[in-house]
Amino acid sequence: MVLFLLFNPQPSCGLKIFSSTVSPTYAAAGGNVTLSCHFNLAPQDTGVIDIEWSIKPTDVNLPETLVIWYAANRIFDNYEVFGSRVQFVSSSPATGNASISISHLKMTDTNTYQCKVRKLPGIQSHIIHMDVMERPTEPECYVEGVVELDCEVVFRCRSSRGSSPVWYRWSMDGTVAPGTLVCTAQNLVGMKSCLVAVSLKNSAVVAISTAVVWLTVFIIIIITALIVFRYKRRKIETFGNEILDDQLPPPCVSVCQRVSACVSVCQPVSACVSLCQLCQRVSACVSVCQPVSVCERERAACSRSTDRATSSSRFTPPSSHLKVGTS
């Protein structure tokens, strides 16, 4: 059988020590913390006061690590563990306030701290365990699926960093915006929140909205197709009319053709002359008509042919005479 006896120093002449800091206490990494340690002295405590803060190891066989020390009206700090990050709250700790503050906390500052006050012949101490934790980062929150009546949806919320345990809490916050859900991630040293906008959608409304969208797209396609078809048709008709106009000879061309026909059959001069006069007028505006000189030459040729025909008609052949002799 092994018997463990724990001896705590007891005040001999009225020395009392107390603290407002609960143990364990929790602090956020990067922040500051105050470890409280106060004491009261009695008139019969005549010894020299000595105040010491140290780190108590979990193994009782290991020595304590000095953090800060007050003795002979002097403060001894800047030890290797904390350097200038630790200091007494009061500039005169001997008056009864031996509390210390630690700044720029690190995760490695998690330890068990001891405040020890000596006032011979009495000694008193107080132990505080401090746990340095990381605050939760701003969580990412979102909704999976469409929020509809009589449908199950899943809201997700998670912080990427933060010391355990981390609790998550959902709440409705109408002060931010109507229908806004708030997710809060919280641990022992801090909290962060994110927002999710929730808009309730009815299945029938969603179906009607979808149908209207598709109908609008279909109408736009039909209208576009009609416009393109009419444009192409008009272009084809215009091109066909141009071809037909090119194929039809101008009126004056038929006149020139009549002149040539007149000359070839050698119509009366009056007819040819009238046609040639018409050809002269047409040739002034139509390049395909025969030049005036051609008309003149054809008229002259026609005139000569007519003159020869007229001369031949006036010639009287000799008549035969029967000469009768008289006997």
Automatic annotation (TrEMBL):
* Gene Ontology terms, MF aspect: cell adhesion molecule binding
Query: What is the topology of this protein in the membrane according to its UniProt annotation?
Result: Single-pass type I membrane protein
The biological process GO terms on file are: homotypic cell-cell adhesion
Q: Which InterPro entries did the record assign?
A: EJ_Adhesion_Regulator, Ig-like_dom, Ig-like_dom_sf, Ig-like_fold, Ig_sub, Ig_V-set
Q: Can you name a GO cellular component term? A: basolateral plasma membrane
Q: What is its main location?
A: membrane
Superkingdom of this entry's organism?
Eukaryota
The UniProt annotation puts the region (Disordered) at 308-327
Q: Which PANTHER family match?
A: COXSACKIEVIRUS AND ADENOVIRUS RECEPTOR, COXSACKIEVIRUS AND ADENOVIRUS RECEPTOR-RELATED
The protein in question is named Ig-like domain-containing protein
